[in-house]
Design goal:
alpha/beta; 30% strand; 6-stranded mixed sheet; Metallo-beta-lactamase, Chain A; globular; binds zinc ion
Length: 213
């Protein structure tokens, strides 16, 4: 069965926080809780999900600054790619430059790395390491033999655009390699990006001018 996918747009950066659940077991995860924890938790409660993990695709402030609050509310472990730990640790300091008052992000309970499988009820997601926007950036991919697979792409791939590489730790060449890898996924894969509307791999392969071919 397809996963339940809902989202809330949070923070001054309009970040997509995704709430993803197994429709059979009602277990779920929260991806990129960047801000406004009470709105995120309202969606979790609406779907009556038991949150089993809080995942950050990368350490940028607009993807992690509500981790503390959603962790306190759900008791779920926080998972982050290891190489982005320094970025996450300084997120609350970065926030001051935007007059955004936030508490420090708790250190992760576990790390996400290439080759891992994240189980959510009867669903399983593959962890893909896709550096370039940040050194440790990961995405979650779920293959679906019968229908459409899905990808939570964070800030690597957007509808019509790609992640910026001008922030510390960003690298355009490295990002291009990560995008090349994503373009090997099936065309019908639904892409849920960190910002903006959802898209598909096929649409981005055809129309996104920043994607290598
Ligand atoms: Zn980012």
């Amino acid at each position: 069965m397809h996963p339940l996918v809902d989202s809330v747009v949070v923070s001054p950066f309009q970040t997509n926080c995704y709430i993803v659940g197994c429709q059979e077991t009602k277990e779920g995860i929260i991806i990129d809780p960047g801000d406004e924890p009470e709105r995120i938790l309202a969606v979790v409660n609406f779907h009556r999900l038991k949150i089993v993990a809080i995942v950050a695709t990368h350490g940028h402030l607009d993807h992690v600054l509500a981790v503390k609050a959603v962790k306190e509310a759900t008791g779920a472990p926080f998972l982050l790619p290891k190489l982005d730990l320094p970025i996450a640790r300084s997120a609350h300091i970065q926030a001051r430059f935007y007059n955004w008052l936030a508490e420090p992000v708790p250190d992760p309970d576990g790390f996400l790395e290439e080759g891992q499988t994240l189980s959510v009820g009867n669903l399983s997601f593959q962890v893909l390491e896709l550096p370039g926007h940040t050194p440790g950036h990961i995405a979650l991919f779920r293959a679906d033999g019968k229908g459409k697979g899905c990808l939570f792409s964070g800030d690597v791939l957007f509808a019509g655009s790609v992640g910026r590489t001008d922030l510390p730790g960003g690298n355009w060449e490295v990002l291009q390699n990560s995008l090349r890898r994503l373009m090997s996924l099936p065309d019908e894969t639904i892409v849920y990006p960190g910002h903006g509307r959802k898209t598909t791999i096929g649409e981005e392969r055809r129309y996104n001018p920043f994607v290598p071919r």
